[in-house]
Design a protein that fits this description.
This protein is globular. It has a 7-stranded mixed beta sheet with strand order 1-2-3-4-5-7-6, sandwiched between helices. The chain has 4 helices and 7 strands; from the N terminus they run E-H-H-E-E-E-H-E-H-E-E. It is α+β, with helices and mostly antiparallel strands and about 140 residues long.
């Protein structure tokens, strides 16, 4: 597996990030954009933090955190040609950067790989919302 790094999305990575999101088979509902303008509007929102998922020297996708109904929620969109372990490693790094707990994620009910990946990181099913499943990474006791 190539080295996977998560870093803040830079202006010169936006084209590649958008292309990776469009190529992604992401079933994370808040990671779907109708066009480039909607992606740019979303990236510039004050309550959204977008990270580049870099695989070696190329953009493999994005990880993001945003406010949804007063809670912090994350999402991933990874290009299909990224290494198989890239989404899990990116999610792991994203949960470290987003230290607020509980932390939520919403995925399509039929996206089995996303469900398995979230469970590996420690997320548990919180509720069903139509065709989507909301997961939570609960606070830990120290």
């Amino acid at each position: 597996m190539s080295h996977i790094e998560l870093h803040p999305l830079s202006d010169d990575e936006r084209d590649a990030a958008y292309d990776a999101v469009r190529a992604s088979s992401s079933a994370w509902p808040r990671g779907v954009f109708d066009d480039r303008d909607s992606f740019e509007t979303w990236v510039r929102r004050a309550d959204v933090t977008v990270y580049t998922i870099a695989q070696g020297d190329r953009v493999a996708g994005i990880g993001a955190a945003m406010d949804v109904d007063g809670d912090r929620e994350i999402l991933l969109a990874v290009a299909p040609d990224a290494d198989a372990d890239a989404p899990t490693e990116a999610l792991r790094q994203l949960t470290v950067r987003e230290a607020e707990r509980p932390l939520y994620a919403c995925v399509s009910a039929d996206d089995r790989p996303a469900h398995e990946m979230l469970a590996r990181i420690g997320f548990v099913e919180h509720e069903r919302d139509g065709a989507d499943v909301v997961y939570v990474l609960p606070p830990t006791l120290e």
